[in-house]
């Protein structure tokens, strides 16, 4: 079971997660994926749309820590990869 976060001012839901690519191919603190409402009682979790949190790009942003239960035991090869400055 994954912990889901909800914006208090909207119906925006997101899941911070880590997987076997975290810290190697993807951002050290994990990535986010948003939930899309599929129908009245179901939401879709599409890892193809996973992205780095703002703190990956700017040290002035503070991102929530990924809950332990959101650490996946598989590689999620989809979505945004590690950001590197040139």
- The whole-angstrom Rg is 13 Å
Elements, N to C (H/E): EEEE
Unreliable spans = none
Shape: globular
Give the neighbour order of strands across the main sheet: 1-2-3-4
Strands, count: 4
Q: What is the overall number of helices?
A: 0
Terminus-to-terminus distance: 38 Å
Structural class: mainly beta
Q: Hey, roughly how much beta strand do the residues contain?
A: 15-25%
Please tell me the overall pLDDT.
Answer: 90
Label this structure with key terms:
single chain; 86 residues; mainly beta; 0% helix
Q: What does this molecule look like?
A:
The protein contains no helices and four strands. With 86 residues, it is mainly β. It has one domain (5-70). A four-stranded antiparallel sheet has the order 1-2-3-4, with no helix packed on it. Strand 3 (31-39) and strand 4 form a beta hairpin. The chain is globular and about 40 Å long.
């Amino acid at each position: 079971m994954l912990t889901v976060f909800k914006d208090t001012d909207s119906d925006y839901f997101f899941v911070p997660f880590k997987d076997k690519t975290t810290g190697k191919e993807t951002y050290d603190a994990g990535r986010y994926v948003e939930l899309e409402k599929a129908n009245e009682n179901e939401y879709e979790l599409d890892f193809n749309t996973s992205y780095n949190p703002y703190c990956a790009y700017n040290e002035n942003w503070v991102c929530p820590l990924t809950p332990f239960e959101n650490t996946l035991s598989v590689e999620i090869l989809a979505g945004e990869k590690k950001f590197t400055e040139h």
